[in-house]
Predict the structure of Hydrolase.
Amino acid sequence: MLMAMRKLRLLTAVTATAAVAGSLLILPATAIPGLPANIPVNLPSGLLPDDMVQQASTVPGIASGVDVSRWQHPDGGSIAWDQVRTDGQSFAVVKASEGTTWTNEHLVDDTSQAAANGMQVGTYHYARPGGDARAQAQHYASQYNQVGNHSLPPVLDLEVSEGKSPEQLADWTREFMNELETLTGRTPMMYTYRYFWIEQMNNTQEFANYPLWLAAYQSTAPDPVGGWNKLDMWQRSDSGRVNGIAGNVDLNLFNGNEAQLNMFSAGQLQASGGKLEGLTVNDGVDLGADSTVIIGAILALAAGAIAAPALADAAQNANLDGLPDVVNGLIANDNLPVEQLETMADGNYTLGDLVILLDNAEHVANATGADNTTEYKAVVGALNGLAGR
């Protein structure tokens, strides 16, 4: 949900998102920077320029939404929420806070404008379990209470352990959720991803009474984790395009139609269900493939067993062309999460899980409570430059 490093798999001029067998295209001047205008280019089967193949932002009969942070405000620009709504988005979740000090300067404007354009509105807090749980819940609640049009449940974004054991993480999460519910009067929602919950939370069933928002960048809706019997929301992509938002944005599906979303927002948290179960959405880049091979290449590079070009080849085959830069940066600063990568390789986890893991490793390594340090901006800038975005 950080919307920074997760663009690493899209750093090429073309992306395998459509079947165009042996097409001959006449590319416009802006299609591939540096090439002359209007030249014929033979494209291999299955490839189209990235700006000519865009992921569908909605799915018929299901409520769609976006989640945003400051990354959707390049150079301080605004989101055109009227266009977002017109583009079929029914809800928006805005990052409110992180740790005990960081707040999103765009929070009030984004939430008020989204609500004014008829969207259901929510916020989230990026958890830093290395810090005090109650203090973070209090910090988030203070931001939450600024949002007058808050219709969706407040969200705990839990993706990093910061050295805590599963038992310690469960204690931290329990304390945060209890404090947040007391301060807001709302039942919170849990955002996480499969690898983290199964391995770092020991797949605990303790929190299954809260709504579940699960990230999984794949074409088929994931099964729930822990003791949950359904997903309430599915973050299906971190590289969507929606009118009114500059660059990429996270795409989400609610497990229901608009009427069910309205009931859910009104506090009927059992209103979701029946739309995501078994759903397959065939658009965009599918990162549902097994991550074992690419993890092996990353660990081999870290151990000095292979050279950088070997990882680059493996990354390209996995449609993760920006991966070597990210991995090399983590290795150089001794921030590569080796133990977690080894654990992930031993399990049945996807390339999407790998992207989220590395994204969070980069964030925690370079941000002291927030994603606004000079070092972090440099990393993001380099990746966005490679992406041409």
About this structure: Confidence is low (pLDDT under 50) at residues 9-53, 368-389. The longest strand covers residues 89-98.
